[in-house]
Amino acid sequence: MNRCLTGGADAGWRELVAAEYAIGGLHGTVRRDFEKRRERDARYCQAVGQWEDRFALLAEMLHCAAETAGLRVAFARPLFWQMASGVLAVAVVLLAIALFR
């Protein structure tokens, strides 16, 4: 998923955690620690901003594709974001496994 959204560029761990944060997959202590790092280091803010832009574009593309196909998509449902977060988490774990082998 990262390669599709970034045009084939490999992301570092900062970008992968920023993607988790942007989609809402970080919770509790991990989320608070990430937010503290964002306050101290602008690279985290930039990475989150880039992922938020990518996800917004992806959501818009999905919405347009659904409209073209005559389908109705409701992005406001919490289940959608939970599923999207789960898919992203699995993708991040698989990417991390692939990178560190």
Shape: globular
Q: Oligomer, anyone?
A: single chain
Query: Could you tell me how far the N terminus lies from the C terminus, measured between alpha carbons in angstroms?
Result: 19 Å
Helix content: over 70%
Give the SSE order as H and E letters.
HHHHH
Rg, rounded, reads 15 Å
Tally of DSSP β-strands: 0
Task: Give structural attributes.
single chain, 101 residues, mainly alpha, 5 helices, globular
Walk me through this protein's architecture.
The structure is a single chain. The chain has 101 residues and is an all-alpha fold. The chain has one domain (2-99). Helix content is 78%, strand content 0%. The chain is built from five helices and no strands. It has helices at residues 2-6, 13-23, 28-40, 42-69, 78-99. Helix 2 (13-23) crosses helix 4 and helix 2 (13-23) packs antiparallel against helix 5. The longest helix is centred in the middle third of the chain and has 28 residues, at 42-69. It is globular, with a radius of gyration of 15 Å.
Q: Which SSEs are present, and which pair or pack?
A:
Layout: H1 2-6, H2 13-23, H3 28-40, H4 42-69, H5 78-99
Helix pairs in contact: 2-4, 2-5, 3-4
